[in-house]
Amino acid sequence: MLNIFTLANGRLFQEEIESLEELSRFRPIWVDLESPTLEEKRWVKQYYGLSIPEDAMDEDIEESARFYEEDNGELHIRSDFLIADDQEPRTVRVAFILNQHNTELKSRGVLFSIHDEDVPVFRLLRLRARRAPGLIEDAKEVLLKLFDADAEYSADTLEGIYDELEKVSKQVLSGDVTDELASEVLGAIARQEDLNGRIRRNVMDTRRAVSFMMRSRMLTAEQFEEARQILRDIESLDNHTAFLFDKINFLMDATVGFININQNKIIKIFSVASVALLPPTLIASLYGMNMAKFPELELLGAAGYPYVLLLMIASALVPMWYFRKKGWLKK
Questions:
Q1: Fewer CB within 10 Å: C terminus or N terminus of the chain?
Q2: Which carries the bigger pLDDT value, residue 134 or residue 220?
Q3: What span, in angstroms and rounded, lies between the C-alpha atoms of 327 and 23?
Q4: How far is it, in rounded angstroms, from Cα 198 to Cα 188?
Q5: Pairing of strands 67-69, 75-83
Q6: What pTM did the predictor assign?
Q7: What are phi and psi of 69, to 5 degrees?
């Protein structure tokens, strides 16, 4: 899919391109290619003179190949953007090519973005730019606003993680944690930990991209200050992710502690049963010996068998009564 974005009255407008001839009708500041076809790549190369690298969205590339500037002034940035999907949170690699010397648009240039799927941050920026006139002035501003929206999207996702952990915290700290509930809680904690880790990696990547733009000396004084503000926001997100990691570890330890308590209760039952059955076992072993005569049984005569049974029952009940009196049988 090939979309172009033009500025009109300070607002950003989107047009979907379906032929090469349509490109000549617009003067965009942003050209967005989502899962582009070979034909759409050919249109971009033919009209703008831009060749999209084959490894534009490659995940396994060195840092030096992710942020660099060509001799002709083209700025190449490959950055990751978060998709906080409830079922499958993930990051999407986006390749940016900033042409700062476009003859069609003079000093405003053109930003090209290439990615495999739609990114929530892109939708957020498009919505804001349509509603807020003057938000974007040139292609560099588009790139900066995307990174700014990415930081804000990460912040909103962190708030969602905190809300989910608060629900888990109430379940864990209620004290009534069964094995089934503990299993659900551990699964929820693991999902939030994974998402929190992805956010931390995402903001780290955004920081590197913004820092590269600042080092390239391509920004105006106002844009440079905006980039510094984005870095400050990212720094605060780092502190927030560290706090959430601590909270996740606490809830994980607490849940595992309740699992151990439940296991100890089961072990305690078996231990009490073993100790309570020791005296009956001893009596049964004593009277089960192959001996000719037992003096006390001879005195009791026919009542000897019931006597032994009652003695075994009493020897089991007395320890149980003692354990209950001490409170060792309480849950």
A1: C
A2: 220
A3: 83
A4: 16
A5: antiparallel
A6: 0.75
A7: -125, 130
